[in-house]
Each structure stands twice: as C-alpha cells, then as structure tokens.
Amino acid sequence: MKRTATAAALLAALATLTACSSSDDSSDSKPAADAPAYTITQQDDSGNQRTVRVEVETADHLREVFDDVAAKLTDEAAYFVEINCKTGGTGKADNRLGNGRKSVGTIGAAGTGMPDGESEFEALPDPKCPA
C-alpha cells in the first residue's frame, strides 16, 4: 500500500511538472514587446565562447535589444553580443553601437569572468546610425 501511494504521488508530481514546463518557440524569433526590431545576423551555436551579432535600424533602446537577445541565450557558454547599426558599416568594419556579454553556467563564468547568469552591456559613447 505504501509503495502504491508513493508511486501515485510521484506520478502526480511528474504530471504537474510536465504541465508547467511548456515552451513557446515563437518568442525566440521575435523581439520582446519593449525591444525595438532587430535582426540577428550571426549566432554561434557551438563552443565555449560564442558571438552574437545583431543589427538595428536606430540607436534607440539598445539596452532593451541587448536584454531581449541575452534572455534567449540559455546554452552553457560565454556569450559576446555585438550590436551594430544596419547602415553605415563597411565590409571590413561594422558600425558598432554597443557590446555586451552574458555568462551561462560554469563555462560561461570562466569565459566572461562574471558569475553564472550575469550579463553586462555598454553602449559606445554617443551611438548613432546614419540617416
């Protein structure tokens, strides 16, 4: 009897966890409501240190763009996020607006020097996109 009650409790707990762990993949491809539109032009998907390059139309709300991108980086790694203006760059140089990094797991902490789960972003001084 005790074994049946324990098995029933475990099954109920598993059913609850399964019901609560749904994911909506559609949010991964769109910016959050408070982040302006952006395009990810490069995203490394393997390795301990990964680069993510993002292009935006304007230099407005760069922090919100970074926060939205960083929230979607969940594999264990050290992430380096580069935000560039869509215009004004050349084949050899981006029109950089800001840089950020995020640490996920112990590998991320080792690669960024920041504790697991931490992120930081810094916009370049007076960032602008050409008109």
Task: State the main characteristics.
131 residues, alpha+beta, five-stranded mixed sheet, 3 helices, disordered N terminus
Number of helices: 3
Shape type? globular
Structural class: alpha+beta
Whole-number mean pLDDT: 80
Task: Note the beta-strand portion.
Answer: 25-35%
How far the N terminus sits from the C terminus, by CA atoms, comes to 75 Å
Strand-and-helix sequence, N→C?
A: HEEHEEHE
Low-confidence stretches: 1-29
Please count the beta strands (DSSP E, at least 2 residues each). Answer: 5
Strand order of the largest sheet: 1-2-3-4-5
**Main sheet properties:** 5 strands, mixed
Helicity level, as a percent range? 25-40%
Radius of gyration: 20 Å
Commentary on this structure:
The chain is an alpha+beta fold and 131 residues long. Helices cover 28% and strands 28% of the residues. The chain is built from three helices and five strands. Strand 1 (38-43) and strand 2 form a beta hairpin. The longest helix has 19 residues, at 2-20.
Question: Care to give the gist of this entry?
Answer:
The chain has 131 residues and is an alpha+beta fold. The protein contains three helices and five strands; from the N terminus they run αββαββαβ.
Protein topology:
Blueprint (H helix, E strand, L loop, with lengths): L1 H19 L17 E6 L5 E8 L5 H10 L5 E9 L10 E9 H8 L6 E5 L8
Parallel strand pairs: 2-3
Antiparallel strand pairs: 1-2, 3-4, 4-5
